[in-house]
Amino acid sequence: MLRGLVAGNTRPSVGPSARESVASVRSGRVSFAPNARPASPKLETRRLARAIAIASGKGGVGKSNIALNLGIELARSGRRVALFDADLGCANVDVLCGLPVKATLEDVLQGRRRLAEIVMKVPGIRGRGGLGLIPGASGVAELAALNAVQRQGVVEELGALERVVDVLLIDVGAGIGADAIGFASAADTVLLTCTPEPTAMTDAYAAAKAIIARDAAVDLSLVVNMVGCEDEGVAVHKRIDGVARRHLRRPIPLAGIVPFDFSVVAAVKRRRPLSMVASETPAAVAIRRLAAELQSKPGQDEAGGMTEERGLIAGLMRAFRRSGRPGSSQRQSG
Q1: Which of 56, 139, 142, 186 could serve as a FRET partner for 299 with CA atoms 20 to 30 Å apart?
Q2: How many CB atoms lie within 10 A of CB 259?
Q3: Are strands 167-172 and 80-86 parallel, antiparallel or unpaired?
C-alpha cells in the first residue's frame, strides 16, 4: 500500500546538505547551494491526499481511538490511508494497535531514519486499501524550532507521503498548543472530538476558537463521543454550536455521535482496534457511519484527494509562516 513511499535510497539526515537538491513541495527542484535561485515550479496540478485532523480540547475523550478505527474503516472501503500520530507529547496509537515500535518521528528529526523507514503497516485489512501508521514521540514539538533547511527536509518527507496515499489522518495533540493548532489548521478537514462532560465541552470550544482564529474558513465539525444516548449527543452539539454562532460568528456542524460502549474498553485492554475485534458493536458501527459520511462530502476528486494548492504541505507551509515561537501558546492538560 505504501510501496511508493518506501521505495528509494535512504539518507542519513532529515535536512539536505548545503549543496544538495531535493524535490520542492510543489514541483521542480530546489537547490540549497549558497545564493542559488530556486527553479520555477511546473504548472501541472497533482492530486494530493485528503488530510483529516482529529483534534480535541482535552485528553481522555477517545480521540486516538476514533482516529485509528476511522482509518481502518476508510481502508476497508478501498482507500490507501496513512495515520500520522502527531500527538507529539503522548503518542499512543501504536499501543492501541499492539504494534511494536522500533523507530518514531523523533528518529526522523534526528536524522537516524527516513520517514519511509518508520511507517508500520496495520495488519488484518483486506482489499486494495491499507493503513500505515507513522508513530510519533515526545520532543517532536521542537519541529517549529528547526532551521529552514531542516524544516524543508521534514516537509519533503511528509510531501512524499501525501502523494502515495488517498487519505492522511492526523491524530493531533489535545489542547491548544502550537503543534496541535498548526497541524489542525493545515488539514483539509478537522474533526473536533468531545464528550458530554462539562470540562470536555468547555475545552472543545476553546480548541475550536483557536483553530478558527488561525483559519476562519476551516472545515471544522464536531464528533460527540461516549454518549449515553443519541439525544445526549445532539444536546452537546447544540450547546457548542450555539456558543460558536454567538461568539465566533460561524456554525460548527455535527459530524457524528459515538455511543459509550464497553467493547471499546475491552479492545483497548487487548491492544486491538475495535473495528477488528468487535466490528458490529454500537461504537464501531457509528465510526463506520462517520467514515461513510466523510467519503460522501463534496469537494474532493474521485479518489478523495485534494489539489496541490489545497494539500497538507501547502497548509503546513502557511502555518509555518504564520506561527510564532514554539512557546507562544500553552498546551492544555486533561
Answers
A1: 56
A2: 19
A3: parallel
pLDDT at 148: 61
pLDDT in tens, 216-249: 999 999 999 999 999 999 999 999 999 999 999 9
Cα–Cα distance measured from residue 186 to residue 177, given in angstroms and rounded to the nearest whole number: 14
Quote the Cα angle for 82-11-4, to 5°: 35
What residue ranges of the chain have pLDDT lower than 70?
Answer: 1-47, 88-89, 138-154, 298-311, 313-334
Q: State which amino acid sits at residue 10.
A: T
Q: Are 215 and 90 in contact (CB under 8 A)?
A: no
Burial of 317 (0-12, 13-18, 19+ CB in 10 A): middle
45-322 has CATH 3.40.50.300 classification: yes
Q: What cell does 215 get?
A: 483559519
CA distance 214 to 185: 7
DSSP conformation class of 2: -
Domain ranges of the chain: 45-322
Helix runs in 223-261, H state only: 230-247
Instruction: Classify 175 in phi/psi space as left (phi over 0), alpha (psi -120 to 50) or beta.
Output: left
pLDDT at 105: 80
Rounding to the nearest 10 degrees, give the CA dihedral for residues 64, 300, 213, 195.
Answer: -30
Residue type, 198: P
**What gap in Å lies between CA 49 and CA 83, rounded to an integer?**
12
DSSP state string for 179-222: HHHHHHHHSSEEEEEE-SSHHHHHHHHHHHHHHHHH-TT--EEE
Under DSSP, is residue 238 helix (H, G, I), strand (E, B) or coil? Answer: helix
Angle CA 193–196–200, to nearest 5: 55
